Amino acid sequence: MEIRRQGDCLEISELDPFLAELLRQVPESTNTDGVEAAQQRLFSSPAPASEREVCAEWKLYVEPELRRLFQTATETVAVDLQQLNGSTKPFANCTLNSDQERRRLAERT
């Protein structure tokens, strides 16, 4: 496996099939729906529960944006990892290029 950075692009080539499969599982593994412990770990309050006002403001103003950023990052990773669908060539010869997602996003705007 070889990892290169080319400008804003990260490229992973000659990807091991086992690692490719682990990477493909990342987006699904980030789903925290119904897992309270995971949600608390990712979106924890910045202060003890005794500081109710700070915690309430955090939950109202900061947490929604954190959740949005986490979701957007997960979607970006999922789109980048679609290159590993395995239908075109063996994983060992695959190149995973993070720049493809940036191009798609640029085309939307």
What does this entry look like structurally?
The chain is mostly helical and 109 residues long. The protein has five helices and three strands, in the order ββααααβα. It has helices at residues 17-24, 26-29, 36-42, 52-81, 99-108; strands spanning 2-6, 9-13, 95-97. Strands 1-2-3 form a three-stranded antiparallel β-sheet, with no helix packed on it. Strand 1 (2-6) and strand 2 form a beta hairpin. The longest helix is centred in the middle third of the chain and has 30 residues, at 52-81. The protein is elongated. The model has no long low-confidence stretch (mean pLDDT 82).
Sequence-ordered SSE layout with sheet pairings:
Blueprint: E1 2-6, E2 9-13, H1 17-24, H2 26-29, H3 36-42, H4 52-81, E3 95-97, H5 99-108
Antiparallel strand pairs: 1-2, 2-3
Q: Average pLDDT across residues?
A: 82
**Can you list the strand order of the major beta sheet?**
1-2-3
> End-to-end span in angstroms?
34 Å
Can you write the helix and strand succession as a string?
EEHHHHEH
The helical percent reads 40-55%
Largest sheet: 3 strands, antiparallel
Query: For the CA atoms, what is the radius of gyration?
Result: 18 Å
Number-wise, the strands total 3
Global geometry: elongated
User: Which structural category do the helix and sheet elements fall into?
Assistant: mainly alpha
DSSP summary: helix tally = 5
Beta-strand content bin = 5-15%
Which residues sit in consecutive blocks of at least 5 with pLDDT less than 50? none
